[in-house]
Amino acid sequence: MPIQKLKHAKVLWTYHCTRHPLLPSDVIIGLGSYDLRVAEHAAGLFREGWAPWVVFTGYQGNWTRDLFDTSEAEAFKRHAIEHGVPEEAILVEPEARNHGDNMRLSRALLAREGIEVRRAILLQKPQTTRRAWLTARKVWPELEVIMHHPDLTLDQQPLPHHPMDELIHEMVGDLQRNLLYPDLGYQVADEIPDTVLTAYEALITAGYTRHMSA
After folding, report:
1. Rounded to two decimals, what is the model's pTM?
2. Do 173 and 139 share a structural domain?
3. Tell me, what's the pLDDT at 168?
4. Are 50 and 24 within 8 A, CB to CB?
5. N or C, where is the chain less crowded by C-beta within 10 Å?
6. Which of 148, 174, 191 is the last residue of a domain?
């Protein structure tokens, strides 16, 4: 990949990755995606004792329809059990189709189970944590959110089914959503640095538009 494109990608990566200091919490909420490392990270945090419950939320998307034979939430649950989380500590919400659904449906599930939640560790793949955090603050404003993700660099994030080019398309699309979604009521507004906007425009000019909304 040309050095200049990679430089712009690193600027977007640094902006998107949002990782707060951990605090003891009521629940770990893992947002479904194509990246099972999020479920593995949830398992690690559970084993370390950061929360007594794990919720996995997510239906299927364009990137997972042919990847998993179940919902994203069920695939994450299976992976977390393989990494040491007891099945009885996991709740599954298999219907969410976007970040707003993830938060609303997880809140409803926890309420039905009688689990009081004031603070949650919210997990996503690194490049999507900023958007997840902005959405949670809009949809579940009373919740104290500890945003977290697997400790990966940009070079480590690509997967065989989601290589670097796809990752850059994804980051450009997510930044567009961070610009547009506050006006649509989907998430709170963010202050995006000029350096990030410059990198974003450069990557659009380079053709990284496949994940952008029409």
Report:
1. 0.96
2. no
3. 98
4. yes
5. C
6. 148
